[in-house]
UniProtKB/TrEMBL annotation:
TM regions (residue ranges): 21-40
GO terms under biological process: fatty acid metabolic process
Domain of life: Bacteria
Keywords associated with the record: Membrane, Transmembrane, Transmembrane helix
Gene Ontology terms, MF aspect: FAD binding; oleate hydratase activity
InterPro entries to which the protein is assigned, alphabetical: FAD/NAD-bd_sf (IPR036188), Oleate_hydratase (IPR010354)
Protein name stated in the entry: 67 kDa myosin-cross-reactive antigen family protein
Pfam families recorded: MCRA (PF06100)
Source organism of this protein record: Terriglobus saanensis (strain ATCC BAA-1853 / DSM 23119 / SP1PR4)
Length: 543
């Protein structure tokens, strides 16, 4: 007899009586929202029995999008997608778009047929765009890449990319494009770099023009979070906003499975306690890459905050104390100088800037993807998305996003470290790299508003780590507790992606409910000879 298909498994799961099972999710980001959807869709859990606790006043976590035309829009980051994000597309295949005309998954694929990423100016040097830059890898560099891909993670340990790849590799265009596309730094984990090389083997050919990169129609909050939030609201999921979970009361007797007994949280200045029954479930999103983010303004710089300015890291520290199976949060929290960078969101009230960029790059908004200024001391990049980028954005207002990796160095045109610069000063630096005249600069700056955002933990998930630093999604020895998000361990997949969070959500939901179902397997193009052939050609600049 053949194995049950997914539809049969879902039906069996739904027919299991879970009418009395309550589920508590800590954190209101995409991992918790996805877990709630999987619990309902595939596990038969009643929406009214699911509660999501969120410290902030809105859902979405790092998938944010806020602001107004008058005050300026804000995106802490943008999320690239690609066709092999199988868990994400599985989730959103059941979620209608806001206009209910199709599913979110259908919308994403249809949109990326309309606007396909094809950069004509992936790099800009001395004000000049470079179309399809060569990778510039030597045979030695390529052999090192091949060796790293084959090397077991356990042998790499806490070594860095620089340790394994060497200075010559870090001077290549391949590294320049790879590190700015994915936000890697030379001191980041060699293990994470290896995983990225493997996970995106199928994208190496054409990477210098960003082929295969996909985007949502609007920003990630409007296109992903809002439809998913409505999906859950319509199923009576409860959201407790401005509710900070302070502690989990845990119990683990000798030779017995541990479990969560209570959830203690603060809401409206009051300490509240929830009793968790033995058959109830708790799913916790560990840490946050956008925790303690701080906004500046067009005229002021953004300040650097710490883990004490939010609740996600401190909660992880509390529950992990004396429990090695819960991971080591200090590995990811105690190195802000190695994980911070600044992003900007610029709201434009005049079309001149976008017209200048379009003329220089040859790409219409939404088509070009990331443009990196190779000469930049800050290693700045910008993205011009399709307009409008926000639902309700006026036709005469445009928005773009950018970021810089080296925030401690003085700029090329503004003699200050990026982290000490106001939004207008950062935009001035970008205009300098585009070789825009002073007269044009004054006009563009006078008709724009740039908001910088300092994120101290934005690449903390890339920091050097080894086995045991991140806990399993289903920690061994615990029966009603699971972890989700960017700081739990999932073999083969890569952090700093929506896919990683959604995969953790599916694994948590199916595992805790003991459903005979697993998330879609990670795509492994490295085992396809056709993919390998194209990747090797690409590495040798033989496209």
């Amino acid at each position: 007899m053949s194995e049950m298909n997914d539809i049969q498994k879902r039906e069996r799961a739904r027919n299991t009586d879970r009418s009395d099972t309550k589920v508590y999710l800590v954190g209101g980001g995409i991992a918790s929202l996805a877990a709630a959807a999987f619990l309902i869709r595939d596990g038969g859990v009643l929406g009214k029995n699911i509660t999501i606790y969120e410290e902030l006043d809105r859902l979405g976590g790092s998938l944010d999008g806020a602001g107004s035309p008058e005050e300026g829009y804000v995106l802490r980051g943008g999320r690239m997608m690609e066709s092999k994000y199988l868990c994400t597309y599985d989730l959103f295949s059941a979620v209608p778009t806001l206009d209910r005309s199709k599913t979110v998954t259908q919308e994403i694929f249809e949109w990326n047929e309309v606007i396909k990423t094809h950069s004509h100016a992936r790099l800009v040097r001395d004000g000049q765009p470079i179309n399809a830059p060569e990778f510039g890898l030597s045979e030695k560099n390529i052999l090192k890449i091949e060796w790293l891909i084959a090397e077991p993670e356990g042998l790499l340990g806490r070594t860095s990319i620089a340790d394994q790849m060497g200075e010559e590799f870090l001077q290549t265009n391949f590294w320049l494009m790879w590190c700015t596309t994915f936000a890697f730094q030379p001191w980041h984990s060699a293990v994470e770099f290896k995983r990225y090389l493997v996970r995106f083997t199928h994208m190496v050919q054409g990477f210098n023009q960003l082929h295969g990169i996909m985007r949502t129609v609007f920003n990630q909050y409007d296109s992903l979070v809002r439809p998913l939030e409505r999906f859950l609201i319509e199923r009576n999921v409860k959201f407790l906003l401005k509710s900070k979970v302070e502690e989990l009361v845990l119990r683990k007797d000798i030779d017995a499975e541990g479990f969560v007994e209570k959830i203690i949280y603060t809401a409206e200045g009051k300490l509240e306690t929830v009793e968790v029954r033995s058959h109830d479930l708790v799913i916790v999103t560990l840490g946050s890459m956008t925790e303690a983010s701080a906004l500046g303004s067009n005229g002021t710089a953004a300040v650097v905050k710490s883990k004490k300015d939010g609740g996600s890291w401190t909660l992880w520290e509390k529950i992990a104390a004396s429990r090695p199976e819960f991971g080591k949060p200090a590995v990811f929290t105690d190195h802000i100088d190695e994980s911070k960078w600044i992003s900007i969101t610029t709201t434009l009230y005049d079309p001149d800037f976008l017209e200048l960029v379009r003329s220089m790059t040859g790409n219409v908004p939404g088509e070009g993807g990331l443009v990196t200024f190779a000469d930049s001391n800050w290693l700045c990049s910008i993205v011009i998305p399709a307009q409008p980028h926000f639902i309700g954005q006026p036709e005469d207002v445009q928005v773009f996003w950018g970021y810089g990796l080296y925030v401690d160095k003085p700029g090329n045109f503004v003699p200050k470290p990026m982290q000490d610069c106001s939004g207008a000063e950062i935009f001035t630096e970008i205009l300098g790299h585009l070789h825009i005249s002073e007269e044009q600069q004054k006009s563009i700056l006078a008709n724009s508003r740039t908001i910088p955002c300092m994120m101290p933990f934005i690449t903390s998930q890339f920091l050097r780590r080894e086995k045991g630093d991140r806990p399993e999604v289903l920690p061994k020895g615990w029966k009603n507790l699971a972890f989700t998000g960017q700081f739990c361990e999932q073999p083969d997949d890569v952090v700093f992606t929506v896919e990683y969070s959604v995969r953790s959500a599916a694994s948590a939901a199916y595992g805790l409910l003991d459903i005979d179902r697993k998330p879609p397997a990670v795509y492994k193009g490295q085992y396809d000879p056709r993919v390998l052939y194209k990747a090797i050609k690409g590495l040798h600049d033989l496209d």
